[in-house]
C-alpha cells in the first residue's frame, strides 16, 4: 500500500513540472509564441496600369518567444518573401506587391504561425492612363494619376519646336509659343515663281511668259535670258482652217495657204481620229461616244447655289456637296481616278453649297455662315464662322438683317485666307441694307481685316491678284474697286509683332488700329478689334454690267461689258451689237486668254427679225470672242450641239492652243437629253463628242486634261470623268466659277 501511494504522487509531480514549461523557449520560461498584424487593411491606392507598387505590413510578436509566420495571397497581389521571422517581443515585416490592371481589385493576405491565423484585406485601383497629347508646339502634357486628367504646361524657353506654318523654320519656344525664322524659298531661277504656303511649304511654279501678240510665236523661259519669243512648229494653225484655205504658221509668220490632200484639217479628239483634206473636203472617220475614265455613284443628289459650282477640283481631288433623301447631306471627296477619299457629314445634316477649295480647306456656304473642311483625312470640320460680322456684333450688339454671301463673292489668297463680300438683307431676303468686305484666316476662320460697312449691297464678284491685292466689282452700282492687305509677321526676336506693308502693295491702303498680339497673324488687336481694309475705286467703273469678272496679264474683263486695265484705265467696251438680232450676255463664264489679249463671253441670241418675242425654244447660246484692245468682236459660234434642237449650255473652259472647251446638251424629240463635249477654235466648232447614253447634267468642271461631270444616268446620280485631249489653261480663269477650285485668283 505504501509503495503504490508513493508512485502516484511521483506521477502527479512529473505532470505539474512538464506543464509549466509548455510553449517556452529555452531560457524564457513562461512566454507564449504568437503574433498579430499591425494593420487590418493594406491600401495600395491608385496605380498606373502595367506598373507594380510595394507596400510593407508590420507583424508584432505577442510574446517573448520568436515565431515564424507564413504569408500567402493571390494575384494581382504577391508576397515578396513568404516566411517572415518575428523576433520575440519584436516586429517583422512582410512585403507585398500589387501588379496593377485597369480596374479596382480586392484581395486577402493570409498569415499563419502554428495554430494562429490572421487575415489582412488588400485593396488597389488599377488606372489606365489617358493618351495625353499637347494642344500645340511648346506645350507638354502629362497624365496626373490622382485626378485622372491630363495636365498641360509650357515647355522651357529655347526648346526646339516645329512652327505651325511651313513658311517658318528653326523654331524655338518662347513663353509657350513656337517662334521660327522665315523660310527662304527663292531657288535663284528666273523661270520659276517661288512662294511659300503655310501648309505645303515652298511651292514652285513655272513662270507664265506673256503670250505674244503674234499667234505664230510662243513665250518660253530661258534660265539665263528669261522669257523669250520663239516660233511655234510649222503648220500650226494660227486662224481658221479648212481644206479650201488654212491659216498656218511658217517660220513664225501666219500665212494663208491652200492645203494639199492629206493636210490635217481637224485634230484628233478622244472620240474621233484626225481629219485630212481630200479634193478640197475635210474627211474624218465616224465619231464614237466618249469613254469615261471612271464613273462612281454619288449616293445622293449634288447640291449647288444657283450659278455656283457643282464640283470643285484642287490638288487631284474632286469635291461635291451631296444630299441623300434620308441620309442628310455631306461633303464628298474623290480622287481624279474615282476613288472615294471621304464622305464627311455636315453636323446638322443640312445642305451646304461649294464655294472654293485649296490646300488650306474646302470652303462651303452654310446658313448665315462659312465653314471650312479639311481637304485630306476624314474631311473634319476645321472652322465655322458666322457671317453676322457687323459693327453691332463687334460692339456686342445684335446686327440688323440677314447676312449672306455666295459664289463669286468668295475668293482665296495664295495662303488660303478667305476674302468674302458680305451683304445684309431684310428678313425676306430682299432689299439689301448694307455690305462689307471681310478677310478671314485660313486656319481658324477668324476675322483678319474688314472693310467699312457701306450702304446697299447685292451681287458682286471678287478676284485676287497674288502680286497686288484684290478687285471687287459691284454691278448694282457699277463700281470697280481695288483693295490690298499686308498681314503682320511674327517677331523673330521674341518681341511684339509689327504690321508691315508688303513690297507689292500700295502704300496707305491698310491701316492698323492697334498692334497685333498673336503669333500667326492679326487675328485680333490689343483693343479687341481687327485690321481695317480700305477699298479704293478704280476709274469710273462699269455700269450696267452683269456679275462677272475675269483677270489675266494685267487686264480685267468686267461685267461681260468692258475690258479694264488693272490700274483703272478703260480699254474698250465689248461690241454686243448684233444688228437685228437680240443678244443678252450671260453673267458667266467670261474667259481671258493667258496673255490678256482675247476675251470670250457667252450670250443668249434670238434670231427673230419680225419683232415677235422669243420663247425658250427660240433661244440659242453663242460664244463671242473679243479683242481686249478695243472690245470689237472676232467671231461668234453657236455652242449648242444641234442647230435644230433646243439645248442647254453647262460649262466652258479655255484650253491650250486658244481652244474653248464647251459642255452642252440637246433636248431630244422624245423628251430625253444627250450631252456633248465640244471644241471651238478661231471661230469654228472643230469637233464634238457625245457623252454616252441619255443623261441629265447638274454641273461640270474642266481640270487638267479631264472633264468631271455630275450627272444622272438611269435615275442614279453619278460622278464621271472624261478625257479632253488637251489641257485646261492654268493661267487666267478658264472655268465658269473661276479656277477649278472655284477661286477667282490670277496666277502671275
What's the short version?
3% of the residues lie in helices and 48% in strands. It is built from two helices and 62 strands.
Care to describe what's here?
- 37% of the residues are buried.
- The strands form 16 sheets. Strands 35, 36, 37, 38, 39, 40, 44 and 45 form an eight-stranded mixed sheet that branches. A five-stranded mixed sheet has the order 2-9-8-4-6, with no helix packed on it.
- With 748 residues, it is mostly beta strands.
- It is built from two helices and 62 strands.
- Mean pLDDT is 85; it is low at 1-6, 8-30 and 487-528.
- A hairpin with a 4-residue loop joins β19 and β20 (246-250).
Morphology:
elongated
Percent of residues in β-strands: over 45%
The computed structural class is mainly beta
Helix content: under 10%
**Poorly predicted parts:** 1-6, 8-30, 487-528
Separation of termini? 141 Å
Write down the overall mean pLDDT: 85
Number of helices: 2
How many strand units? Answer: 62
* Spatial extent as radius of gyration: 41 Å
Question: Based on the structure, what is the oligomeric state of the protein chains?
Answer: single chain
Can you summarize the main beta sheet? 8 strands, mixed
Features of the shown structure:
single chain; 748 residues; mainly beta; five-stranded mixed sheet; 62 strands; 48% strand; elongated; disordered N terminus; S_mold_repeat; ECM-enzyme_regulator; signal; Tenascin-X
Amino acid at each position: 500500500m505504501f509503495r503504490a501511494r508513493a508512485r502516484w504522487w511521483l506521477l502527479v509531480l512529473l505532470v505539474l513540472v512538464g506543464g509549466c514549461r509548455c510553449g517556452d523557449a529555452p531560457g524564457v520560461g513562461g512566454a507564449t509564441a504568437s503574433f498579430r498584424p499591425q494593420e487590418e487593411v493594406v491600401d495600395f491606392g491608385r496605380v498606373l496600369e502595367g506598373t507594380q507598387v510595394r507596400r510593407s505590413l508590420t507583424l508584432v510578436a505577442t510574446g517573448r518567444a520568436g515565431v515564424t509566420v507564413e504569408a500567402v495571397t493571390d494575384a494581382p497581389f504577391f508576397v515578396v518573401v513568404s516566411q517572415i521571422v518575428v523576433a520575440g517581443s519584436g516586429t517583422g515585416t512582410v512585403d507585398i506587391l500589387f501588379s496593377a490592371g485597369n480596374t479596382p481589385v480586392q484581395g486577402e493576405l493570409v498569415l499563419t504561425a502554428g495554430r494562429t491565423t490572421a487575415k489582412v484585406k488588400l485593396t488597389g485601383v488599377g488606372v489606365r492612363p489617358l493618351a495625353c497629347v499637347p494642344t500645340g508646339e511648346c506645350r507638354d502634357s502629362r497624365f496626373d494619376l490622382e485626378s485622372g486628367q491630363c495636365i498641360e504646361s509650357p515647355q522651357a524657353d529655347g526648346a526646339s519646336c516645329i512652327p505651325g506654318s511651313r513658311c517658318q523654320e528653326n523654331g524655338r519656344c518662347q513663353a509657350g509659343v513656337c517662334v521660327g525664322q522665315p523660310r527662304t524659298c527663292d531657288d535663284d531661277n528666273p523661270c520659276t515663281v517661288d512662294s511659300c504656303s503655310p501648309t505645303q511649304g515652298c511651292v514652285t511654279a513655272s513662270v507664265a511668259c506673256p503670250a505674244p501678240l503674234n499667234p505664230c510665236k510662243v513665250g518660253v523661259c530661258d534660265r539665263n535670258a528669261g522669257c523669250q519669243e520663239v516660233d511655234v512648229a510649222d503648220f500650226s494653225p494660227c486662224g481658221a482652217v479648212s481644206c479650201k484655205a488654212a491659216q498656218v504658221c511658217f517660220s513664225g509668220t501666219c500665212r494663208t495657204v491652200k492645203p494639199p490632200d492629206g493636210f490635217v484639217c481637224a485634230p484628233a479628239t478622244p472620240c474621233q481620229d484626225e481629219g485630212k483634206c481630200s479634193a478640197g473636203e475635210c474627211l474624218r472617220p465616224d465619231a464614237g461616244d466618249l469613254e469615261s475614265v471612271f464613273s462612281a455613284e454619288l449616293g445622293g443628289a449634288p447640291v449647288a447655289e444657283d450659278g455656283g459650282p457643282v464640283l470643285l477640283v484642287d490638288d487631284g481631288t474632286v469635291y461635291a456637296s451631296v444630299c441623300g433623301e434620308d441620309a442628310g447631306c455631306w461633303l464628298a471627296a474623290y480622287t481624279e481616278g474615282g476613288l472615294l477619299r471621304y464622305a464627311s457629314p455636315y453636323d446638322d445634316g443640312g445642305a451646304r453649297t461649294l464655294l472654293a477649295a485649296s490646300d488650306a480647306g474646302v470652303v462651303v456656304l452654310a446658313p448665315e455662315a462659312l465653314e471650312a473642311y479639311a481637304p485630306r483625312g476624314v474631311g473634319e470640320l476645321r472652322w465655322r464662322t458666322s457671317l453676322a460680322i457687323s459693327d453691332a456684333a463687334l460692339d456686342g450688339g445684335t446686327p440688323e438683317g440677314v447676312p449672306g454671301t455666295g459664289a463669286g463673292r468668295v475668293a482665296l489668297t495664295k495662303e488660303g485666307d478667305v476674302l468674302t463680300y458680305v451683304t445684309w438683307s431684310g428678313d425676306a431676303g430682299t432689299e439689301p441694307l448694307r455690305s462689307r468686305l471681310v478677310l478671314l484666316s485660313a486656319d481658324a476662320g477668324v476675322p483678319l481685316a474688314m472693310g467699312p460697312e457701306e450702304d446697299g449691297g447685292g451681287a458682286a464678284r471678287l478676284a485676287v491678284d497674288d502680286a497686288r491685292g484684290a478687285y471687287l466689282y459691284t454691278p448694282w452700282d457699277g463700281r470697280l474697286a481695288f483693295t490690298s492687305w499686308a498681314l503682320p509677321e511674327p517677331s523673330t526676336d521674341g518681341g511684339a509683332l509689327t504690321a508691315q506693308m508688303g513690297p507689292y502693295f500700295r502704300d496707305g491702303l491698310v491701316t492698323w488700329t492697334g498692334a497685333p498680339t498673336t503669333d500667326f497673324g492679326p487675328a485680333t488687336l490689343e483693343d479687341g478689334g481687327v485690321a481695317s481694309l480700305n477699298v479704293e475705286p478704280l476709274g469710273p467703273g462699269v455700269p450696267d454690267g452683269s456679275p462677272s469678272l475675269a483677270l489675266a496679264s494685267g487686264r480685267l474683263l468686267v461685267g461681260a461689258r468692258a475690258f479694264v486695265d488693272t490700274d483703272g484705265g478703260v480699254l474698250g467696251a465689248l461690241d454686243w451689237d448684233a444688228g437685228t438680232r437680240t443678244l443678252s450676255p450671260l453673267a458667266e463664264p467670261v474667259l481671258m486668254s493667258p496673255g490678256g489679249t482675247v476675251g470670250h463671253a457667252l450670250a443668249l441670241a434670238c434670231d427673230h427679225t419680225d419683232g415677235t418675242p422669243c420663247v425658250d425654244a427660240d433661244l440659242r447660246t453663242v460664244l463671242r470672242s473679243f479683242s481686249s484692245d478695243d472690245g470689237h468682236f472676232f467671231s461668234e459660234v453657236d455652242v449648242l450641239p444641234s442647230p435644230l434642237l433646243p439645248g442647254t449650255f453647262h460649262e466652258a473652259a479655255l484650253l491650250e492652243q486658244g481652244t474653248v472647251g464647251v459642255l452642252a446638251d440637246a433636248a431630244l424629240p422624245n423628251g430625253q437629253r444627250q450631252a456633248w463635249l465640244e471644241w471651238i477654235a478661231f471661230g469654228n466648232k472643230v469637233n464634238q463628242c457625245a457623252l454616252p447614253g441619255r443623261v441629265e447634267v447638274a454641273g461640270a468642271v474642266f481640270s487638267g486634261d479631264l472633264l468631271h461631270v455630275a450627272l444622272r444616268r438611269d435615275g442614279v446620280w453619278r460622278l464621271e470623268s472624261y478625257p479632253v485631249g488637251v489641257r485646261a489653261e492654268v493661267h487666267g480663269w478658264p472655268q465658269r466659277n473661276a479656277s477649278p477650285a472655284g477661286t477667282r485668283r490670277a496666277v502671275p
